[in-house]
Every structure is written in C-alpha cells, then in structure tokens.
Design a protein that fits this description.
globular; 35% strand; 180 residues; 3 helices; 10 strands; alpha+beta
Length: 180
C-alpha cells in the first residue's frame, strides 16, 4: 500500500476512534462521493438501551504532512483540492437553503513528515500518536472556487479536534441548522 493510501486510512480511523470512544455511531459510506465518515449521535433510552438519534454529521477527511501547511498564531492554512472545497460549499448551500441535510464538514489531519514519527511505541508497549486534526466549515458567504487545482483555506486553531469534539460539533451544527 502506498503512503497516500496509508495516510487516508490512518486519518479516517483516527477520527473514527475518537467518535466511537465517545459513544457515537460511525458508518463508512459504501461509495466515494466525497464523504469519508458519518457520525451519528446516540440516544440513551430509559430502558438502558441506545438507539441512533437521526442526527448525523458527515465528514470529509484529508490527511497531510506538517510541511504542507502554514500556521500563523491564529490559523492553519491548507491548500485543499478545489473539488473537495466546492463539495463543502455546495453542501453548505443545500443545508442552509433546505434545512434537510446533515451538516458536512472537513477534518484535516496533520501528520509529521516521516511516517515512522506518526505513531511512537514506548518501552512499555504504549502507542502514542503524534498527530493533530482541525475541523473546518465554510462560512455562508463563501462561494464556489473557479481555481483549477486547489483552494487555500484558513482553519482557526481553536477548531482543534480532541476527545470533546463530537458533543461540541453536534451542539454547534445541529442546534444551528436543524430545529426539528
């Protein structure tokens, strides 16, 4: 398997691990139309059972190495393929216009340049991941890009993916977009 495929799988599984650790239901679409994962909130019933709530966030996940990004004191700058950027914009348009679709966001996973630095095994056999991830949602004012290959995006550093990311995104995106 080439390194780009390994990056892709590594990043998708990193996000999946975080979501499942927090009790969210994760599915991987069968076809590749730009969505890598769906994360669904679970409802805890009074019987003690859990069921899917119907509230889903769809994710486009990209993995890149540190040297492919630029970081300022407030933002991470990343050149996203124009096709992927336009998918985010188009989906945002439909979500804001029709209020029927699950929110669709980008997560950019940043790994060290050298593959052997992505994951370190301690002398006790513990694995330590040396990666960071940030989430991005285009602003409603953003437009389809006419660029040929890529579109530079600026992701606020406060959009760091951590163990609290799922409840934070569900509160932010579902409360804002969907009043069911």
């Amino acid at each position: 398997m080439n390194e780009e495929k390994i990056k892709e799988l590594f990043s998708v599984n990193y996000i999946r691990l975080i979501a499942e650790y927090n009790g969210y239901y994760v599915t991987i679409p069968g076809q590749d139309y730009g969505t890598d994962l769906h994360i669904e909130e679970m409802l805890h019933l009074s019987t003690g059972e859990y069921i899917p709530s119907g509230k889903i966030i769809s994710l486009q996940i990209k993995c890149t190495s540190e040297e492919s990004t630029t970081q300022t004191s407030t933002h991470l700058k990343y050149d996203l393929a124009v096709r992927n950027y336009n998918l985010l914009i188009q989906r945002q348009y439909y979500t804001d216009t029709f209020h029927r679709f699950s929110p669709y966001i980008l997560i950019t996973v940043i790994v060290p340049k050298q593959k052997e630095d992505w994951m370190i095994e301690s002398s006790l056999g513990e694995l330590h991941l040396k990666i960071k991830a940030y989430w991005y949602l285009p602003q409603p004012k953003n437009q389809i890009s006419k660029n040929k290959s890529s579109k530079r995006i600026e992701i606020p550093l406060e959009n760091l993916v951590n163990l609290e990311i799922c409840p934070k995104l569900f509160n932010l995106l579902w409360d804002k977009n969907h009043h069911l």
